[in-house]
Write a structure and sequence with these properties.
This protein is α/β, with parallel strands linked by helices and about 110 residues long. The chain has four helices and seven strands, in the order E-H-E-H-E-E-E-H-E-E-H. A hairpin with a 2-residue loop joins strand 4 and strand 5. The relative contact order is 0.18.
């Protein structure tokens, strides 16, 4: 069964870059620019890893994280150095994030699932 990664960001070019860099035969990646669509998809089929951008139109990644099952592993990506999330995140990556560091984190998480 593939490792399911969902990524919510309002910047389509970052989502496309993520898909280009992180696609693999043993992964299923779903990308979202709309938080409502992401939450609906998460409720339908929980991902193994949820990646959330902090600043989203009309909400935050922190709010989305608190709206879904607390058992889902989550990563927050932000350019805001002063973010103090209320939800639990396995890791916070600061923009611009290092692709290799994120890839290593995902590989370790995937191996442990």
């Amino acid at each position: 069964m593939p490792f399911k990664i969902y990524y919510l960001d309002d910047e389509p070019e970052l989502l496309e870059l993520f898909v280009d860099c992180f696609s693999a035969p043993d992964r299923m990646i779903k990308i979202f620019t709309d938080h409502s669509a992401a939450i609906a998809a998460i409720q339908e089929l929980s991902p193994d890893l949820l990646i959330l951008d902090y600043r989203l139109p009309n909400t935050t990644g922190d709010h989305v994280a608190m709206s879904v099952n607390a058992e889902i592993a989550k990563i927050l990506i932000t350019g805001d150095l002063e973010v103090v999330p209320k939800a639990h995140f396995l890791k916070i990556f600061r923009k611009p994030y290092n692709l290799n560091e994120l890839q290593d984190f995902i590989k370790i998480r995937q191996k442990n699932c």
